[in-house]
Design goal:
Strand order of the largest sheet: 2-1-3-4-11-10-9-6-7
Number of helices: 5
Distance between the termini: 9 Å
Helix content: 10-25%
Shape: globular
Largest sheet: 9 strands, mixed
């Protein structure tokens, strides 16, 4: 089992993810440069947080055209596990692998704080081991994490069980308190909180371990 962590110009959480996967979970990890063309020997893909391409135009708008992401798209459409964290979530929405958009926070401030989240795992393999209604704590660090989607589409996502993480106390104005959602198949997960920063008691908690460890199962 090898996890590929995509690296864009401006990524700043790629090493955090690798540290969490290898240092805390013992999971083999490989960096994937955005200009690569193929995924070889990769069993799961993580799009990490950061500021890909400096967040020019809007978050994730340029990264979606990276050559490697064409292979990531095919991998996801074939059932491969893809996790987008913070900026990675923004990239997934720009690619159309997840619906909606991430916009400026309600109060236009960058938020960096722990948040409580309510889990609704449904059938997503990324949330295997979490109980429905379980509350976990993960840190957020974003300026554009306000999830936007029209009411009709949101209702459809909720009916299909695609909204899998909600803020217990909404910090950024996201519709429906959405903090994370999956595609219809459940193999693609995007979330604004950072599970890789909650894998060691020394960094404030271990509630993110199970989510990253799901790549093993």
């Amino acid at each position: 089992m090898t996890v590929g962590v995509v690296v864009f110009p401006g990524s700043n959480c790629d090493r955090d993810v690798r540290w969490a996967l290898e240092g805390c979970l013992g999971l083999p990890t490989r960096f994937l440069w955005h200009e690569e063309l193929e995924l070889r020997g990769i069993d799961a893909v993580v799009l990490p947080g950061g500021f890909s391409y400096g967040d020019y135009l809007r978050c994730g708008a340029i990264a979606r055209f990276a050559p490697l992401l064409q292979s990531v798209r095919a991998f996801a459409e074939d059932g491969g596990r893809v996790l987008g964290i913070c900026n990675g979530f923004q990239v997934l929405t720009e690619m159309g692998l997840l619906p909606g958009a991430l916009t400026r926070n309600r109060d236009l401030h960058f938020l960096c704080q722990p948040v409580d989240l309510v889990v609704s795992p449904n059938t997503s393999p990324w949330l295997k081991g979490y109980g429905s209604g379980e509350t976990i704590t993960l840190p957020i660090a974003h300026g554009e994490g306000r999830y936007q989607l029209d009411a009709h589409q949101l209702a459809e996502l909720e009916q299909r069980g695609q909204v899998v993480l909600r803020y217990a106390a909404n910090p950024n104005g996201s519709v429906g308190d959405v903090a994370g959602l999956t595609n219809a198949a459940g193999n693609v997960l995007g979330l604004m909180p950072h599970p890789e920063r909650a894998c060691d008691p020394a960094t404030g908690g271990i509630d993110g371990r199970r989510l990253l460890a799901a790549a093993l199962s």
